[in-house]
Amino acid sequence: MADLAALTAAVEAGNRAAAGELTQAAVDEGVDPRTILSAMTAAMDVVGRKFQEGELFVPEMLIAARAMKAGTAILEPVLLAAGVKPEFRAVVGTVEGDLHDIGKNLVGMMWKGGGLEVFDLGVNVSAAAFVAAAREHDAHIVGLSALLTTTMPNMRGVVEAVHAGLPGVRVVVGGAPVTPEFAAQIGADGYAPDAGAAVDLARGLLAHA
Ligand code: B1M
């Protein structure tokens, strides 16, 4: 019988091979792909919480995200065939002038782990590119990352451009120099200090979308 508890444990432990095998076994047994996905999302929720609480660190989070990727690679065609699509879409990127992407990648991975469809625009992304991508993908939320005090102000332009061009789309910000006060000043819809908190933030905002 499909062992979904073992799948959750494998993703949480970052065991890529086991995550892939257990996902395949569950698929072969005909388990609803949404149930299989939930087993992996549950693991990423635990990983996110432990990360927020300082119980585990960036490498463990990356390893867990990779294990989930091994499972989702198998699951994606099954979900697609069943017509199951994530309810919400997100666009994420590092703002113009900034080439740091490790934190942004983590946020993207955790959002995927949390069940969002994520379009990652990479680094050095202009306000116009954020707006164009959010429009193209019909995004519900746009996530901005900045690591430099010199690029952090570029977030303001993106917030303004998204709010002006795409009313209702939420813009959230984060990155080492970013503070909740700065986020409020530039009119962002939210701020998260880390990738685990970014999942809770997105869920909270999208619950009212
Ligand atoms: Co750069 N760098 N760097 N760097 N770099 C910093 C940021 C710096 C603090 C180092 C220092 O001086 N102590 C400093 C900034 C100083 C400042 O602005 N006050 C700095 C500098 C100055 C520079 C250059 C200008 C150096 C130079 O060329 N003279 C240059 C700038 C290039 C550019 O961007 N235009 C530069 C270049 C680089 C590398 C390319 C070498 C490399 C980046 C590689 C890459 O990202 N692929 C690099 C690195 C690695 C760092 C440090 C060492 C590490 C950053 C990192 O990845 N942290 C950094 C010093 C440090 O932080 N200790 C530094 C790990 C990552 C998981 O954390 O990104 O904070 P972080 O993400 C966290 C949270 O912030 C949050 O969640 C993540 C997970 O918890 N978060 C979000 C992030 N985005 C979020 C978005 C959200 C929500 C939460 O919502 C959407």
Summarize the helices and strands and which ones pair or pack.
Elements: H1 4-13, H2 16-28, H3 33-52, H4 58-81, E1 89-94, H5 102-113, E2 117-120, H6 127-136, E3 141-145, H7 154-165, E4 170-174, H8 180-185, E5 190-191, H9 195-206
Parallel strand pairs: 1-2, 1-3, 3-4, 4-5
Helix pairs in contact: 1-2, 1-3, 1-4, 2-4, 3-4, 3-9, 4-5, 5-9, 6-7
The chain binds CO-5-methoxybenzimidazolylcobamide (B1M).
CO-5-methoxybenzimidazolylcobamide is lined by residues 58, 97-104, 106-107, 143-145, 147-150, 172-177, 192, 194-195, 198.
Annotation keywords:
209 residues; five-stranded parallel β-sheet; alpha/beta; binds CO-5-methoxybenzimidazolylcobamide; 5 strands; 11% strand; single chain; Rossmann fold; Methyltransferase, Methionine Synthase (B12-binding Domains), Chain A, domain 1; globular
Summarize the structure.
The protein is an alpha/beta fold. It has helices spanning 4-13, 16-28, 33-52, 58-81, 102-113, 127-136, 154-165, 180-185, 195-206, and strands at residues 89-94, 117-120, 141-145, 170-174, 190-191.
How would you characterize this protein structure?
- The protein has 209 residues and is of the alpha/beta class.
- The chain folds into 2 domains: 4-81, Orthogonal Bundle (Methyltransferase, Methionine Synthase (B12-binding Domains), Chain A, domain 1); 89-206, Rossmann fold (3-Layer(aba) Sandwich).
- The protein is built from 9 helices and 5 strands.
- The chain has helices spanning 4-13, 16-28, 33-52, 58-81, 102-113, 127-136, 154-165, 180-185, 195-206; strands spanning 89-94, 117-120, 141-145, 170-174, 190-191.
- Strands 2-1-3-4-5 form a 5-stranded parallel β-sheet, sandwiched between helices.
- Helix 1 runs antiparallel to helix 2 (16-28), helix 1 (4-13) runs parallel beside helix 3 and helix 5 packs across helix 9.
- The longest helix has 24 residues, at 58-81.
- The radius of gyration is 17 Å and the shape is globular.
- The mean pLDDT is 95.
- The site of CO-5-methoxybenzimidazolylcobamide has 28 residues, from helix 5, strand 3, strand 4 and helix 9.
- CO-5-methoxybenzimidazolylcobamide is lined by residues 58, 97-104, 106-107, 143-145, 147-150, 172-177, 192, 194-195, 198.
